[in-house]
Amino acid sequence: MMGIPSGRVRQTILEWLKDPAAHFPAAGRCRPADTGVTAGAVAAKLGVPRRTALAHLDLLTRLGLLRTRRFHCRTYYRRDEVRIAEVARMFEKGW
What we know:
By secondary structure, the protein is an alpha+beta fold. The chain has helices at 6-18, 20-23, 32-35, 39-46, 50-62, 81-92, and strands at residues 66-71, 74-79.
């Protein structure tokens, strides 16, 4: 995704995480729809280094749009639908 603005990359990540099972393969017993998605999986899909994907995921997490869960030495990312709806309402009202 080289050359694509960072905001668009983050928007794409949020779209993928809306339906993680459709965009990320299951890894062993971990199914993306149940556990969330790792930074490595996002990096592979974006075609960027893990560190780059992690920077995007960290920003989305700090904004409250993603939730994290640690499991077996890995961090899994999922959308926070309640927070995303709150932010959408703020923009609809003209913030």
